[in-house]
Design goal:
Strand content: 25-35%
Number of domains: 3
Strand order of the largest sheet: 12-14-15-16-17-13
Structural class: alpha+beta
Number of strands: 17
Number of helices: 14
Helix content: 25-40%
CATH superfamily of the largest domain: Reverse transcriptase/Diguanylate cyclase domain
CATH architecture of the largest domain: 2-Layer Sandwich
Length: 435
Protein backbone atom coordinates (compact mmCIF):
# COMPACT_ATOMS: atom_id res chain seq x y z
CA UNK A 1 0.00 0.00 0.00
CA UNK A 2 1.03 3.63 -0.41
CA UNK A 3 -0.36 6.55 1.55
CA UNK A 4 -0.30 10.29 1.01
CA UNK A 5 -0.53 12.78 3.85
CA UNK A 6 -1.99 16.23 3.37
CA UNK A 7 -0.55 18.05 6.35
CA UNK A 8 -2.44 21.23 7.19
CA UNK A 9 -0.16 23.18 9.54
CA UNK A 10 -2.23 26.37 9.30
CA UNK A 11 -5.70 24.91 9.08
CA UNK A 12 -7.08 27.03 11.93
CA UNK A 13 -5.80 30.22 10.30
CA UNK A 14 -7.05 29.14 6.88
CA UNK A 15 -10.48 28.51 8.36
CA UNK A 16 -10.47 32.06 9.75
CA UNK A 17 -9.30 33.61 6.47
CA UNK A 18 -11.86 31.66 4.43
CA UNK A 19 -14.76 32.62 6.66
CA UNK A 20 -13.59 36.06 7.88
CA UNK A 21 -14.73 35.15 11.41
CA UNK A 22 -12.99 34.73 14.83
CA UNK A 23 -11.22 31.45 15.40
CA UNK A 24 -13.71 28.63 15.77
CA UNK A 25 -12.59 25.02 16.48
CA UNK A 26 -15.82 23.77 14.92
CA UNK A 27 -15.09 25.70 11.74
CA UNK A 28 -11.60 24.19 11.66
CA UNK A 29 -13.01 20.69 11.92
CA UNK A 30 -15.60 21.47 9.24
CA UNK A 31 -12.78 22.50 6.92
CA UNK A 32 -10.98 19.23 7.60
CA UNK A 33 -14.12 17.26 6.83
CA UNK A 34 -14.51 19.25 3.62
CA UNK A 35 -10.96 18.30 2.64
CA UNK A 36 -11.73 14.67 3.45
CA UNK A 37 -14.75 14.83 1.16
CA UNK A 38 -12.58 16.35 -1.55
CA UNK A 39 -9.88 13.70 -1.05
CA UNK A 40 -12.51 10.98 -1.37
CA UNK A 41 -12.47 11.48 -5.13
CA UNK A 42 -8.89 10.18 -5.20
CA UNK A 43 -9.29 7.21 -2.86
CA UNK A 44 -11.93 5.19 -1.06
CA UNK A 45 -9.65 5.03 2.01
CA UNK A 46 -9.48 8.49 3.58
CA UNK A 47 -8.96 9.26 7.25
CA UNK A 48 -8.87 12.34 9.46
CA UNK A 49 -7.59 10.45 12.50
CA UNK A 50 -4.08 11.96 12.46
CA UNK A 51 -3.58 15.46 13.90
CA UNK A 52 -3.93 18.43 11.53
CA UNK A 53 -3.94 16.17 8.48
CA UNK A 54 -5.93 14.14 6.00
CA UNK A 55 -4.38 10.85 4.84
CA UNK A 56 -5.47 8.78 1.87
CA UNK A 57 -4.36 5.52 0.29
CA UNK A 58 -3.09 6.23 -3.23
CA UNK A 59 -1.45 2.96 -4.28
CA UNK A 60 -4.62 1.53 -5.78
CA UNK A 61 -5.39 4.80 -7.59
CA UNK A 62 -2.11 4.85 -9.51
CA UNK A 63 -3.62 3.59 -12.75
CA UNK A 64 -6.20 6.39 -12.71
CA UNK A 65 -4.24 9.37 -11.37
CA UNK A 66 -0.66 8.46 -12.21
CA UNK A 67 2.46 8.16 -10.09
CA UNK A 68 3.24 10.38 -7.12
CA UNK A 69 4.78 13.37 -9.00
CA UNK A 70 1.74 13.68 -11.25
CA UNK A 71 -0.77 13.15 -8.44
CA UNK A 72 1.11 15.56 -6.20
CA UNK A 73 0.89 18.32 -8.80
CA UNK A 74 -2.86 17.80 -9.11
CA UNK A 75 -3.38 17.78 -5.35
CA UNK A 76 -1.42 21.01 -4.99
CA UNK A 77 -3.36 22.75 -7.75
CA UNK A 78 -6.75 21.84 -6.29
CA UNK A 79 -5.75 22.59 -2.69
CA UNK A 80 -4.55 26.00 -3.85
CA UNK A 81 -7.92 26.69 -5.49
CA UNK A 82 -9.69 25.68 -2.30
CA UNK A 83 -7.51 28.08 -0.31
CA UNK A 84 -5.59 25.71 2.00
CA UNK A 85 -1.88 25.89 2.69
CA UNK A 86 -0.38 22.45 2.99
CA UNK A 87 2.57 20.07 2.90
CA UNK A 88 2.47 16.76 1.07
CA UNK A 89 4.32 13.49 1.62
CA UNK A 90 3.87 9.90 0.46
CA UNK A 91 5.06 6.73 2.19
CA UNK A 92 4.13 3.04 2.52
CA UNK A 93 1.97 3.69 5.57
CA UNK A 94 -0.10 6.71 6.74
CA UNK A 95 1.84 7.28 9.97
CA UNK A 96 5.18 7.46 8.16
CA UNK A 97 3.67 9.83 5.59
CA UNK A 98 2.43 12.03 8.45
CA UNK A 99 5.86 12.06 10.14
CA UNK A 100 7.70 12.85 6.89
CA UNK A 101 5.29 15.71 6.17
CA UNK A 102 6.36 17.35 9.44
CA UNK A 103 9.80 18.05 7.95
CA UNK A 104 9.45 17.73 4.17
CA UNK A 105 7.14 18.94 1.44
CA UNK A 106 6.68 16.81 -1.65
CA UNK A 107 8.78 13.83 -0.55
CA UNK A 108 7.75 10.37 -1.69
CA UNK A 109 9.43 7.23 -0.35
CA UNK A 110 8.94 3.49 -0.86
CA UNK A 111 9.69 0.39 1.18
CA UNK A 112 13.38 0.45 0.29
CA UNK A 113 14.00 4.04 1.37
CA UNK A 114 11.50 4.31 4.23
CA UNK A 115 13.87 3.46 7.10
CA UNK A 116 16.59 5.79 5.83
CA UNK A 117 14.15 8.67 5.34
CA UNK A 118 12.62 8.25 8.79
CA UNK A 119 16.04 8.03 10.41
CA UNK A 120 16.88 11.55 9.28
CA UNK A 121 13.85 13.09 11.01
CA UNK A 122 14.05 14.97 14.28
CA UNK A 123 12.57 13.07 17.20
CA UNK A 124 9.80 15.69 17.49
CA UNK A 125 8.49 14.68 14.06
CA UNK A 126 7.60 11.16 15.17
CA UNK A 127 4.46 12.15 17.07
CA UNK A 128 5.52 10.33 20.24
CA UNK A 129 3.15 10.29 23.18
CA UNK A 130 3.46 12.80 26.03
CA UNK A 131 6.97 14.04 26.93
CA UNK A 132 8.76 11.12 25.30
CA UNK A 133 10.35 13.28 22.58
CA UNK A 134 11.68 15.68 25.23
CA UNK A 135 13.06 12.75 27.23
CA UNK A 136 14.94 11.46 24.20
CA UNK A 137 16.34 14.94 23.65
CA UNK A 138 17.61 15.09 27.22
CA UNK A 139 19.36 11.79 26.61
CA UNK A 140 21.20 13.43 23.70
CA UNK A 141 19.15 11.66 21.01
CA UNK A 142 18.15 14.25 18.43
CA UNK A 143 17.16 12.09 15.43
CA UNK A 144 15.15 8.96 14.92
CA UNK A 145 18.30 7.21 13.65
CA UNK A 146 19.68 7.38 17.18
CA UNK A 147 16.38 6.24 18.68
CA UNK A 148 16.12 3.30 16.26
CA UNK A 149 19.65 2.24 17.32
CA UNK A 150 18.63 1.81 20.97
CA UNK A 151 18.05 -1.73 22.26
CA UNK A 152 14.35 -2.50 22.40
CA UNK A 153 14.47 -3.68 26.00
CA UNK A 154 16.05 -0.36 27.03
CA UNK A 155 13.24 1.61 25.37
CA UNK A 156 10.66 -0.73 26.89
CA UNK A 157 12.11 -0.22 30.40
CA UNK A 158 12.38 3.57 30.25
CA UNK A 159 9.29 4.55 28.22
CA UNK A 160 5.59 3.69 28.07
CA UNK A 161 4.60 0.82 25.75
CA UNK A 162 3.07 3.34 23.36
CA UNK A 163 6.55 4.61 22.40
CA UNK A 164 7.76 1.29 21.00
CA UNK A 165 4.39 0.78 19.34
CA UNK A 166 4.69 4.19 17.69
CA UNK A 167 8.20 3.48 16.41
CA UNK A 168 7.09 0.11 15.03
CA UNK A 169 4.08 1.78 13.40
CA UNK A 170 6.27 4.35 11.64
CA UNK A 171 8.43 1.59 10.17
CA UNK A 172 5.40 -0.46 9.15
CA UNK A 173 5.96 -3.32 11.59
CA UNK A 174 2.59 -2.53 13.17
CA UNK A 175 -0.50 -1.45 11.27
CA UNK A 176 -3.12 -0.09 13.67
CA UNK A 177 -6.44 0.48 11.90
CA UNK A 178 -7.51 3.99 11.04
CA UNK A 179 -11.17 5.01 11.03
CA UNK A 180 -12.17 5.75 7.45
CA UNK A 181 -14.09 8.81 6.40
CA UNK A 182 -17.44 8.44 4.65
CA UNK A 183 -18.99 11.46 2.94
CA UNK A 184 -22.36 12.58 4.34
CA UNK A 185 -25.52 12.44 2.28
CA UNK A 186 -25.97 16.20 2.25
CA UNK A 187 -23.85 19.35 2.10
CA UNK A 188 -24.24 22.05 4.73
CA UNK A 189 -21.75 24.93 4.99
CA UNK A 190 -21.95 28.34 6.57
CA UNK A 191 -19.90 31.55 6.65
CA UNK A 192 -20.49 34.18 9.31
CA UNK A 193 -19.62 37.80 8.58
CA UNK A 194 -17.70 40.06 10.94
CA UNK A 195 -20.36 42.70 10.48
CA UNK A 196 -23.73 42.86 8.79
CA UNK A 197 -23.69 43.62 5.06
CA UNK A 198 -26.46 45.28 3.10
CA UNK A 199 -25.20 44.92 -0.48
CA UNK A 200 -25.60 41.73 -2.48
CA UNK A 201 -22.15 42.38 -3.95
CA UNK A 202 -20.62 41.94 -0.50
CA UNK A 203 -22.06 38.43 -0.34
CA UNK A 204 -20.50 37.31 -3.64
CA UNK A 205 -17.03 36.51 -2.28
CA UNK A 206 -18.29 34.11 0.41
CA UNK A 207 -20.79 32.74 -2.09
CA UNK A 208 -17.96 31.90 -4.48
CA UNK A 209 -16.15 30.13 -1.66
CA UNK A 210 -19.22 28.09 -0.73
CA UNK A 211 -19.82 27.17 -4.38
CA UNK A 212 -16.21 25.98 -4.67
CA UNK A 213 -16.60 23.92 -1.50
CA UNK A 214 -19.83 22.39 -2.80
CA UNK A 215 -18.15 21.53 -6.09
CA UNK A 216 -15.23 19.87 -4.27
CA UNK A 217 -17.63 17.88 -2.07
CA UNK A 218 -19.66 16.71 -5.07
CA UNK A 219 -16.55 15.73 -7.02
CA UNK A 220 -15.36 13.72 -4.03
CA UNK A 221 -18.54 11.65 -3.89
CA UNK A 222 -18.81 11.57 -7.71
CA UNK A 223 -22.25 13.15 -7.58
CA UNK A 224 -24.08 16.28 -8.63
CA UNK A 225 -26.65 18.72 -7.34
CA UNK A 226 -29.87 19.84 -8.98
CA UNK A 227 -31.36 21.91 -6.22
CA UNK A 228 -29.88 23.75 -3.24
CA UNK A 229 -30.78 26.62 -0.96
CA UNK A 230 -29.00 29.80 0.10
CA UNK A 231 -30.03 31.07 3.52
CA UNK A 232 -29.26 34.69 4.31
CA UNK A 233 -29.14 35.07 8.08
CA UNK A 234 -30.45 38.25 9.72
CA UNK A 235 -30.33 39.44 13.27
CA UNK A 236 -33.66 39.30 15.08
CA UNK A 237 -35.72 38.05 12.13
CA UNK A 238 -36.18 34.86 10.08
CA UNK A 239 -33.65 33.87 7.44
CA UNK A 240 -34.22 34.74 3.80
CA UNK A 241 -34.12 31.57 1.71
CA UNK A 242 -33.17 31.65 -1.97
CA UNK A 243 -33.78 28.36 -3.77
CA UNK A 244 -31.50 27.55 -6.69
CA UNK A 245 -32.64 24.90 -9.17
CA UNK A 246 -30.88 23.50 -12.22
CA UNK A 247 -32.41 21.64 -15.14
CA UNK A 248 -29.83 18.86 -14.83
CA UNK A 249 -27.48 17.76 -12.08
CA UNK A 250 -24.17 19.64 -12.16
CA UNK A 251 -21.08 20.15 -10.03
CA UNK A 252 -18.90 22.70 -11.81
CA UNK A 253 -18.10 25.38 -9.20
CA UNK A 254 -18.16 28.21 -11.76
CA UNK A 255 -21.62 27.24 -12.99
CA UNK A 256 -22.95 26.76 -9.45
CA UNK A 257 -21.67 30.21 -8.52
CA UNK A 258 -23.10 31.91 -11.61
CA UNK A 259 -26.53 30.38 -11.15
CA UNK A 260 -26.59 31.15 -7.42
CA UNK A 261 -25.44 34.72 -8.04
CA UNK A 262 -28.19 35.28 -10.58
CA UNK A 263 -30.84 34.04 -8.15
CA UNK A 264 -29.33 36.05 -5.30
CA UNK A 265 -29.29 39.28 -7.28
CA UNK A 266 -33.03 38.90 -7.97
CA UNK A 267 -33.92 38.15 -4.35
CA UNK A 268 -35.46 40.77 -2.10
CA UNK A 269 -33.44 40.91 1.12
CA UNK A 270 -35.40 42.64 3.91
CA UNK A 271 -32.52 43.27 6.35
CA UNK A 272 -28.71 43.30 6.63
CA UNK A 273 -27.08 39.89 6.34
CA UNK A 274 -24.99 38.46 9.18
CA UNK A 275 -24.20 35.07 7.65
CA UNK A 276 -24.60 32.92 4.56
CA UNK A 277 -25.44 29.23 4.58
CA UNK A 278 -25.55 26.83 1.63
CA UNK A 279 -27.60 23.68 2.08
CA UNK A 280 -27.92 20.88 -0.50
CA UNK A 281 -30.04 17.88 0.44
CA UNK A 282 -30.91 16.47 -3.00
CA UNK A 283 -27.76 15.00 -4.57
CA UNK A 284 -28.68 12.94 -7.64
CA UNK A 285 -26.12 11.04 -9.73
CA UNK A 286 -24.01 13.16 -12.04
CA UNK A 287 -23.68 12.26 -15.71
CA UNK A 288 -21.12 14.42 -17.58
CA UNK A 289 -22.25 15.93 -20.85
CA UNK A 290 -21.00 14.07 -23.92
CA UNK A 291 -18.19 15.65 -25.88
CA UNK A 292 -16.67 14.83 -29.25
CA UNK A 293 -13.18 13.36 -29.17
CA UNK A 294 -11.95 16.18 -31.37
CA UNK A 295 -13.91 19.11 -30.01
CA UNK A 296 -13.46 22.09 -32.33
CA UNK A 297 -14.69 24.64 -29.80
CA UNK A 298 -12.13 27.14 -28.48
CA UNK A 299 -10.85 26.48 -24.96
CA UNK A 300 -12.41 29.68 -23.62
CA UNK A 301 -15.87 28.77 -24.94
CA UNK A 302 -18.51 28.59 -22.21
CA UNK A 303 -20.41 25.26 -22.19
CA UNK A 304 -24.03 25.46 -23.32
CA UNK A 305 -25.26 24.12 -19.98
CA UNK A 306 -23.59 27.00 -18.14
CA UNK A 307 -24.94 29.60 -20.60
CA UNK A 308 -28.44 28.15 -20.27
CA UNK A 309 -28.41 28.20 -16.48
CA UNK A 310 -26.91 31.69 -16.42
CA UNK A 311 -29.71 33.00 -18.67
CA UNK A 312 -32.38 31.34 -16.55
CA UNK A 313 -30.90 32.82 -13.39
CA UNK A 314 -30.62 36.34 -14.85
CA UNK A 315 -33.80 36.52 -16.96
CA UNK A 316 -36.14 34.14 -15.16
CA UNK A 317 -37.31 30.63 -15.93
CA UNK A 318 -40.07 31.72 -18.32
CA UNK A 319 -37.79 33.95 -20.38
CA UNK A 320 -35.72 31.01 -21.66
CA UNK A 321 -37.73 28.73 -23.91
CA UNK A 322 -36.92 25.38 -25.42
CA UNK A 323 -37.88 23.95 -28.79
CA UNK A 324 -38.99 20.33 -29.14
CA UNK A 325 -40.21 18.10 -31.96
CA UNK A 326 -43.92 17.26 -32.18
CA UNK A 327 -45.53 14.24 -33.79
CA UNK A 328 -46.54 16.05 -36.96
CA UNK A 329 -45.05 16.07 -40.47
CA UNK A 330 -46.45 19.52 -41.29
CA UNK A 331 -43.42 21.85 -40.96
CA UNK A 332 -45.41 24.65 -39.34
CA UNK A 333 -46.65 22.24 -36.67
CA UNK A 334 -43.56 20.06 -36.25
CA UNK A 335 -42.07 21.99 -33.34
CA UNK A 336 -43.33 23.53 -30.13
CA UNK A 337 -41.99 25.97 -27.59
CA UNK A 338 -41.99 25.56 -23.83
CA UNK A 339 -39.92 26.00 -20.71
CA UNK A 340 -36.42 24.58 -21.07
CA UNK A 341 -36.34 20.98 -19.94
CA UNK A 342 -40.12 20.43 -20.02
CA UNK A 343 -40.61 19.61 -23.71
CA UNK A 344 -39.60 16.19 -25.00
CA UNK A 345 -38.59 15.32 -28.49
CA UNK A 346 -40.63 12.67 -30.30
CA UNK A 347 -40.55 11.05 -33.68
CA UNK A 348 -43.01 12.65 -36.11
CA UNK A 349 -43.70 9.41 -37.90
CA UNK A 350 -46.08 7.56 -35.57
CA UNK A 351 -49.13 9.82 -35.70
CA UNK A 352 -48.97 10.26 -39.44
CA UNK A 353 -48.83 6.50 -39.91
CA UNK A 354 -51.65 6.03 -37.43
CA UNK A 355 -53.88 8.42 -39.40
CA UNK A 356 -52.78 7.35 -42.84
CA UNK A 357 -50.50 10.28 -43.67
CA UNK A 358 -47.56 9.91 -46.05
CA UNK A 359 -44.10 11.41 -45.85
CA UNK A 360 -41.72 10.47 -48.66
CA UNK A 361 -38.29 11.88 -47.81
CA UNK A 362 -35.92 12.51 -50.72
CA UNK A 363 -33.79 15.25 -49.11
CA UNK A 364 -33.62 14.88 -45.29
CA UNK A 365 -32.34 18.35 -44.43
CA UNK A 366 -34.55 21.10 -43.11
CA UNK A 367 -33.95 24.85 -43.22
CA UNK A 368 -32.71 26.65 -40.15
CA UNK A 369 -35.18 29.49 -40.73
CA UNK A 370 -38.82 28.61 -41.32
CA UNK A 371 -41.10 31.48 -42.36
CA UNK A 372 -44.24 32.14 -40.27
CA UNK A 373 -46.28 31.44 -43.40
CA UNK A 374 -45.39 30.52 -47.00
CA UNK A 375 -45.01 33.32 -49.57
CA UNK A 376 -44.59 33.19 -53.37
CA UNK A 377 -41.03 32.65 -54.61
CA UNK A 378 -40.23 34.48 -57.82
CA UNK A 379 -37.80 33.11 -60.41
CA UNK A 380 -35.81 30.36 -58.69
CA UNK A 381 -32.63 29.73 -60.65
CA UNK A 382 -32.57 25.95 -60.35
CA UNK A 383 -33.89 22.99 -58.40
CA UNK A 384 -31.19 21.27 -56.31
CA UNK A 385 -33.22 18.42 -54.80
CA UNK A 386 -36.78 17.15 -54.60
CA UNK A 387 -39.58 16.54 -54.64
CA UNK A 388 -40.23 15.46 -51.05
CA UNK A 389 -43.94 14.86 -50.60
CA UNK A 390 -45.76 15.76 -47.40
CA UNK A 391 -49.37 14.66 -47.45
CA UNK A 392 -51.06 14.57 -44.05
CA UNK A 393 -53.44 16.32 -41.64
CA UNK A 394 -56.77 15.35 -43.17
CA UNK A 395 -58.08 14.16 -39.78
CA UNK A 396 -57.97 17.58 -38.06
CA UNK A 397 -59.05 19.93 -40.85
CA UNK A 398 -55.51 21.13 -41.57
CA UNK A 399 -54.78 18.87 -44.55
CA UNK A 400 -51.66 19.62 -46.63
CA UNK A 401 -50.61 18.03 -49.94
CA UNK A 402 -47.25 19.48 -50.95
CA UNK A 403 -44.13 18.57 -52.90
CA UNK A 404 -41.08 20.26 -51.31
CA UNK A 405 -37.90 21.18 -53.19
CA UNK A 406 -34.51 22.61 -52.31
CA UNK A 407 -34.00 25.44 -54.78
CA UNK A 408 -31.34 28.04 -55.44
CA UNK A 409 -32.23 31.65 -56.17
CA UNK A 410 -30.44 33.85 -58.69
CA UNK A 411 -28.66 35.50 -55.76
CA UNK A 412 -27.14 32.17 -54.72
CA UNK A 413 -29.35 31.55 -51.67
CA UNK A 414 -30.76 28.11 -50.94
CA UNK A 415 -34.46 28.01 -50.17
CA UNK A 416 -37.02 25.42 -49.19
CA UNK A 417 -40.12 25.76 -51.35
CA UNK A 418 -43.11 23.67 -52.38
CA UNK A 419 -45.75 23.23 -55.05
CA UNK A 420 -49.13 21.63 -54.78
CA UNK A 421 -48.73 17.85 -54.84
CA UNK A 422 -48.43 16.50 -58.38
CA UNK A 423 -47.89 19.88 -60.06
CA UNK A 424 -44.79 20.18 -62.24
CA UNK A 425 -44.92 23.67 -63.62
CA UNK A 426 -46.79 25.69 -61.03
CA UNK A 427 -45.37 28.53 -58.94
CA UNK A 428 -43.18 27.82 -55.92
CA UNK A 429 -44.18 28.85 -52.41
CA UNK A 430 -41.23 29.80 -50.24
CA UNK A 431 -41.36 28.18 -46.78
CA UNK A 432 -37.80 28.57 -45.39
CA UNK A 433 -34.17 29.55 -45.92
CA UNK A 434 -31.05 27.47 -45.47
CA UNK A 435 -28.09 29.08 -43.74
Amino acid sequence: MRWACLLLPRLALDAVLRGHSPRDPKATERCRRLLAAWAYRFSSQVSTALPDAVVLEIGQSRALFGEWPRLQARLRAELGELGFRHRLAAAPNPHAAWALAQAHDGIGVDERTLERSLAQLRVECAGLEGDSALAFRRMGLATLRQVFALPRDTVARRFPPAVLARLDTLRGDLAPPLPCYRPPDRFDARIEFEQAVESSQAVLFPLRRLAADLGAYLAGRDGGVQRFALRLEHEGRPDTEVVVGLLAAGRDPAMLFEVARGRLEQARVPAPVRGLRLLARELPPFVPAGRDLFDARPKQAVPWEQVRERLRARLGDEAVQGVAVREDHRPERATTQGAVGTATAASPSRKARRHGGSHTSVHPSRPGWLLPRPIPLRDPARVIAGPERIETGWWDGGEVRRDYYVVETRGGQQAWAFRAAGERGGPFMLHGWFA
